[in-house]
Specification:
By secondary structure, the chain is of the alpha+beta class. It is built from 13 helices and 20 strands.
C-alpha cells in the first residue's frame, strides 16, 4: 500500500462508512481500515438487529436530548439531519418508515439491509476497504498522516478517526481511537458505559424477571431528584433492572457509581399513583369484599411483584385486607409509591448501547469536525464526548457526524 490517499478512515462502522461515501462522492481517493473481518458489525447488532436509524424530532428538540453540549451537533445535523438521512438511504435503495410516530426504521426492519446498502455504495465509489487491518499507530510526519498496520504503511493527506467508543468489545471496540486522539494531543474525558442495564444489591428483581412494568416512575432517592426522574417501562432481570427508562437513566448513574459506589433509586411501579390514590383504593377494598392483600395487589402488579411489595413493607402476603391497620397500610403505601432499589454496578460495556465521555468537544471544530490541534485530522461519532438516549439518537449522530467529517473543509 504505497499509494498516498486523499483520506484514510480508521473504523468501518456507521460513521466510517458514511464518511467514506461523503468523501468519495467528492472524487477523493479513500482507504477505510477496519480491524474486524468485515465492516459494520456493530451496525448489524444495533436496535436488536433492526437498526433504529433516527427519529422524527425537530433539530432543536433532538439536540436538547443530548443536554448542554447538544448544540455542538448543529452543523452535522444541518448536513444530514433526520429527513436528509432518510433521503440519503432512499438514494441507496433503502426505504424507511415510522410505525410508532417517533422511531425511524428500515422498512425491512433488518439492519443487514442498511449495511448492505452502505457497502454497495462504498464499492461503487471505489473506496478501498482493508479488513483485518488493525492500525497500530497513527502519526503526522513528512507532511501527511502515516498509519502502520500488519498489511504495511498507509499514507494520507487527511485522517478521520471513526473508531467508536468502548461498547460491544466482542465486536472489536477496544478504545483505540482514544489512544490515537491522545497521540495528537487531544484530551479524553473519563468514559463510562451508557444505555446499560443496572445491577442491584437487592435480589428480589430476579423473582420478577418475566414481567415488564409500564409507566413506572424512576427517580433518585437523593440529589437532583427532579432533574433525574424518568417515566417508562422497567424490566426486571436476574441481577437488577433494565428497560428503556433504566437505559436512559444509566447515562447519569454510571458516573455517579464511580463517585459514590452505590446509587439509591425510588421506583413508583404503580403507573405513577400517589399516596392519595392508593388510600382511595384501599378504602374501596375495605368497603367492598376485602380479600387477601397479595391477591388484591395482583390486580395492579404481576403476582410475584405483589408478594415482594408486601415483604418490603414487612407484611404477610396472605394478610386479609380487612385486618390491615392504619400504620401497616401506610407503610405499604410508602413502598408502593417509593420502592427502594440500590444500584451497585452496571452490566458493563458488553451490554451498553453507548459510551459516555470521550474526546473533548472543545478541541474539535463543530462546523467541520476537524481537530483544532492537528489540521487535517477529523473525529466523529461515539469517539467524541457526546451521547444521547435510546431511540435513534446516537445512530443519527454517528451518520451525521461521519458525513460532515467526510465532506472535509
Amino acid at each position: 500500500m504505497n499509494k498516498r490517499y486523499d483520506l484514510a478512515i480508521i473504523g468501518g462502522g456507521a460513521s466510517g462508512l458514511v464518511a467514506a461515501i461523503a468523501a468519495a462522492r467528492r472524487r477523493r481517493s479513500v482507504v477505510l481500515c477496519e480491524k474486524m473481518s468485515a465492516p459494520g458489525l456493530k451496525l448489524l447488532a444495533s436496535g436488536g438487529q433492526r437498526c433504529n436509524l433516527t427519529n422524527t424530532l425537530s433539530t432543536e428538540a433532538f439536540m436538547e436530548r443530548f443536554g448542554p453540549e447538544g448544540r455542538f451537533m448543529g452543523p452535522a445535523l444541518a448536513e444530514l439531519g433526520s429527513e436528509k438521512l432518510r433521503s440519503f438511504f432512499h438514494e441507496l435503495g433503502i426505504e424507511t418508515d415510522i410505525r410508532d410516530g417517533f422511531r425511524v426504521w428500515p422498512a425491512t426492519r433488518r439492519s443487514e439491509t442498511v449495511l448492505a446498502g452502505l457497502l454497495a455504495e462504498v464499492k461503487r465509489l471505489g473506496v478501498r476497504v482493508e479488513v483485518r487491518c488493525e492500525v497500530r499507530s497513527a502519526l503526522f510526519t513528512d507532511g501527511c498522516f502515516q498509519l502502520t498496520c500488519e498489511a504495511g504503511a498507509i499514507a494520507a493527506t487527511e485522517l478521520i478517526l471513526a473508531t467508536g467508543g468502548l461498547t460491544h468489545p466482542r465486536l472489536g471496540t477496544t478504545g483505540d481511537g482514544y489512544r490515537f486522539a491522545r497521540a495528537f494531543g487531544h484530551r479524553v474525558k473519563p468514559c463510562y458505559p451508557g444505555g446499560v442495564p443496572l445491577l442491584t444489591r437487592e435480589r428480589w428483581p430476579g423473582r420478577c424477571t418475566a414481567h415488564t412494568i409500564g409507566k413506572a416512575v424512576v427517580r433518585f432517592a437523593a440529589g437532583r431528584p427532579k432533574k433525574l426522574a424518568r417515566t417508562g417501562d422497567v424490566i426486571f432481570t436476574e441481577r437488577g433492572i433494565a428497560g428503556p427508562v433504566i437505559l436512559d437513566l444509566s447515562r447519569e448513574i454510571s458516573p455517579l457509581l464511580k463517585k459514590r459506589g452505590t446509587v439509591l433509586l425510588q421506583l413508583n411501579l404503580g403507573r405513577g399513583r400517589n399516596r392519595e390514590d392508593w388510600q382511595a383504593i384501599f378504602k374501596g377494598w375495605r368497603q367492598g369484599s376485602g380479600g387477601i392483600l397479595a391477591e388484591r395487589l395482583a390486580e395492579h402488579f404481576p403476582p410475584p411483584l405483589a408478594e415482594v411489595l408486601c415483604e418490603l413493607a414487612g407484611l404477610e402476603a396472605r394478610t386479609a385486607v380487612h385486618a390491615l391497620g392504619g400504620e401497616p397500610r401506610d407503610r405499604l403505601i410508602g413502598i408502593l409509591v417509593e420502592t427502594p432499589l440500590t444500584v451497585v454496578d452496571t452490566a458493563g460495556y458488553d451490554q451498553a448501547f453507548i459510551t459516555r465521555g470521550g474526546v473533548s468537544l472543545k478541541e474539535v471544530d463543530p462546523s467541520t469536525l476537524e481537530s483544532r490541534l492537528r489540521p487535517g485530522l477529523y473525529l466523529c461519532g461515539e469517539l467524541l464526548d457526546l451521547d444521547g438516549p435510546c431511540g435513534g439518537f446516537n445512530l443519527q449522530w454517528a451518520f451525521a457526524s461521519g458525513y460532515l467529517a467526510g465532506l472535509g473543509k
